[in-house]
Amino acid sequence: MTSLTIPTIDDVRAAVPVIREHFSPPPLIRSYALEKRLGLPESRRVWIKDYGWTPVGSFKLMGALNWMANHSDEIGDRCVAAHSSGNFASGISFAGMRYGKRVIVVMPDTAPEVKFNLTKSFGAEVRTYNIARDAETGERDQLTKQIAEEENAVQASPYNDPHVIAGNGVGGLEIVDELKAAGRDVSHFFCQVSGGGLMAGHALAIADGFPDARIVGVEPDGATDFQQSLAAGERVIIKKPTSICDGLLSYSVGEYNWPILQQCVGTAAVIADLDTRRAMKWIYEKHGLRTEPSGAIATAAALDEKADLGDAGDIVIVLSGRNVDEAAFRDWIADV
After folding, report:
1. What is the pTM (predicted TM-score) of this model?
2. Which of 79, 107, 141, 199 holds its CA 20 to 30 A away from the CA of 181?
């Protein structure tokens, strides 16, 4: 592997003014209902960082904006090519709109309609690939590369990029700053892991602000590349990840992401889709929020009866996105 420039907490801090230029911090919500459900004493609190409130309905906008800002001069009058399960697609589309850049995104043919519509609403062109056969054909990467070559485009990664990681980490700094200002301490931080763009950025911020916090990476039981990587001590690639969590189906964590995850994230929580569906229903009933499966899975990990939550400190949970089709959402929360 060639030498990589791994982003640091200073890179995350440098991304703050970039992100603030475009949208306000998503809310950090205190969950009284979850405190009660977990049986916590009055001294402890549970906080949900809800990225459903961003202009694109997910955390992906932060990394996309920071990537676009740092590549704007290089792009010039060329276009941007990227692949995405859906949320980075709308994020990079929004960033392209803000910076006046043409964007072409490759998305799976099974992506939720809401993600297709969001992406197109900000001006990006969308092309699809057959996700069912991608593990064998590599169609997604081939199509993205083809677009980059034919259009002379600059290619953006949804997670395996220092600027994407640093941009996403701004949300982690928001969590740290808000809780420190309130005199709070954090014992546990639950966050989704797929390619690692969200977790790597947040882990840098949480580990810096609350060095004693236990940082827990959460992934579906049909896509456990991160858990396997932690056990092996090196990046593990899985051939065909499966889950209702369409945003958590990467084949492995990224090269730029892995060193940060290995250093900062000591635990992987593996969650069954049924438990994710139950968490979706719980969040909807207790907080009135309609979440996508990938967004709710970290809450499912905190609700897991096997989770060791210790006896002191606050718990922070990332709700990474809320882009889900209504019919699918209703089906998933029925009869659980």
Report:
1. 0.96
2. 199
